[in-house]
Design goal:
The chain is an alpha/beta fold. It is built from nine helices and nine strands. The strands form two sheets. It has a five-stranded parallel β-sheet with strand order 6-7-8-3-9, with helices on both faces. It has a four-stranded antiparallel β-sheet with strand order 2-1-4-5, with helices on one face. Helix 4 runs parallel beside helix 6 and helix 6 runs parallel beside helix 7. It is globular. The two termini are 35 Å apart. It binds adenosine-5'-triphosphate. The site of adenosine-5'-triphosphate has 12 residues, from helix 1. This is Peptide/nickel transport system ATP-binding protein. GO terms for molecular function: ATP binding. Pfam families: ABC_tran. InterPro entries: AAA+_ATPase, ABC_transporter-like_ATP-bd, ABC_transpr_LolD-like, P-loop_NTPase.
């Protein structure tokens, strides 16, 4: 269970090449059971880097290794590798389908793995209960729609969803943005617990104080990115 990026470079398509690469020669590794915190100024490229690490976007050059399996631009990503990477995004409101109850949102990855067209909460009731407990989510809330719960409760549900398939690697982009200190501590605690179970966890956050409380190591994007001097001033 590990994540490694080697010599990764990236420029957003359509951006001015004279402005240089957003990411340049970037190396990063997260071992099994480790929480790595990533901080950088707004616009420096954290979200872009996390999307590359999660194999959602291919790097222009360099490699991403998930559990030792190497991916570079053009390498097809097998479904089981995609499923071994859990992702938590900054805004649970943007990430959650407002028409789906929390139970459906959380168990959707389980249904899709079985080839089902839609989530089947009753079929996955046992696993749903486990996930709700892991995410410290009152099971009563599972019957509600996103607009009927708080941001913190919804983000806990989205963490539960990211854990549904027991990911080997967990990538979190500002998972505690917009949360109060209690929910922040709860969400970071869940992610740290997941690492304790062996998962490699990478978290980007502006809340460096809270993040450094759970991270085994903290990285400054400017320190691992040769484009660091330019990034953040785009
Ligand atoms: N699809 C895109 N096309 C062109 N430029 C983009 C695209 N997405 C992001 N950018 C630019 O790339 C830079 C890095 O964006 P990114 O979202 O990775 O930054 P970030 O460090 O996560 O910022 P924040 O902390 O504000 O979320 C920014 O200057 C942004 O405007």
């Amino acid at each position: 269970m590990s994540l490694e990026l080697r010599d990764v470079s990236y420029t957003h398509p359509g951006t001015d090449p004279a402005a240089g690469r957003l990411l340049d020669g970037l190396d990063l590794s997260v071992g099994a059971g480790e929480v790595t915190g990533l901080c950088a100024p707004s616009g420096a490229g954290k979200s872009t880097l996390l999307r590359i690490a999660a194999l959602m976007v291919p790097a222009d050059a360099g490699t991403v290794r998930i559990n030792g399996q190497e991916f570079s631009r053009g390498t097809p990503v097998p479904r089981e590798v995609r499923r071994s990477v859990g992702v938590v995004l900054q805004s649970p409101r943007a990430a959650a389908d407002p028409r789906m109850r929390l139970d459906a949102l959380v168990c959707a990855p389980l249904a899709f793995r079985e080839g089902a067209w839609r989530p089947r909460p009753r079929r996955h009731a046992g696993r749903l209960a486990e996930l709700a407990e892991l995410a410290q989510l009152d099971p009563e809330l599972l019957h509600r729609y996103p607009h009927q719960v708080s941001d913190g409760q919804l983000q806990r549900a989205m963490v539960a969803r990211a854990l549904a398939l027991d990911p080997d690697v967990l990538i979190c982009d500002e998972p505690t943005a917009q949360l109060d200190s209690e929910s922040t501590a709860a969400v970071l605690g869940m992610l740290a617990n997941r690492a304790a179970a062996g998962t490699a966890v990478l978290i980007a956050s502006h809340d460096t104080a809270a993040l450094s409380g759970v991270a085994d190591k903290m990285l400054d994007l400017g320190g691992i990115n040769r484009a660091g001097d330019r990034a953040g001033h785009a």
